[in-house]
Amino acid sequence: MGPPGSGKTSVGKVLARSTGLPWRDTDEDIAERAGKTIPDIFLEDGEDAFRDLEEQAVAAALGEHDGILSLGGGAILRDATQDRLKAAAAAGTRIVFLDVSLKAASPRVGLNKSRPLLLGNPRQQWLALMDARRPIYEALATESVTTDNLTPEQVAEMIEQTEAPA
């Protein structure tokens, strides 16, 4: 989990390849279920409808997926999802917060239209998102990795080398 540009999808895919575990991305699950892109869901149905789909997608993935799971950046906003993640962590699931600075995230995400919550002044929006979400990411994480100046392979290696929390 982490903000836009932290490497959730890229690192998740690398971890899956290196560990042999299956990979799943809740944003892909949402788009598939809705039959449209995430920006289209935001535009046509609104953020609340998207968050409803996201909460359902995370619940389903946590219940049926045994592998690497990449969450959308805002998946942690719903209390029910936070409770599910806390329960998963208590049961031994590693919850990794991929932290990143705005400077490192900017070129990764391009801060463009495909990021519905970053429209307008994207840098200011990103900072506002992080101010609101950082405490939640930190509270839910069993571990954190700062991804600035690291490749997805380097981040995955750091995660793999870290002992799972007891």
Protein topology:
Elements: H1 8-19, E1 23-25, H2 26-34, H3 38-45, H4 47-64, E2 68-70, H5 79-90, E3 96-99, H6 102-109, H7 122-140, E4 143-146, H8 152-161
Parallel strand pairs: 1-2, 3-4
Question: How much of the sequence is in beta strands?
Answer: 5-15%
At the first level of CATH, the class is Alpha Beta
Rounded to the nearest angstrom, the distance between the terminal CA atoms is 20 Å
Q: Characterize the biggest β-sheet.
A: 2 strands, parallel
By DSSP (H or I, 4+ residues per run), the number of helices equals 8
User: How does the helix and strand content classify structurally?
Assistant: mainly alpha
**Uncertain residue segments:** none
**Sheet with most strands: strand arrangement:** 1-2
Shape: globular
CATH topology title: Rossmann fold
- CA gyration radius, whole angstroms: 15 Å
Return the string of H and E elements. Answer: HEHHHEHEHHEH
Q: Count all strands and give the number.
A: 4
Supply the number of structural domains.
Answer: 1
Portion in helices: 55-70%
CATH superfamily: P-loop containing nucleotide triphosphate hydrolases
Mean pLDDT: 89
Under the CATH scheme, which architecture would be assigned? 3-Layer(aba) Sandwich
Can you summarize this structure?
Helix content is 58%, strand content 8%. The chain is mainly alpha-helical.
Description:
This protein is mainly alpha-helical and 166 residues long. The protein is 58% helix and 8% strand. Helix 1 packs across helix 8. The model has no long low-confidence stretch (mean pLDDT 89).
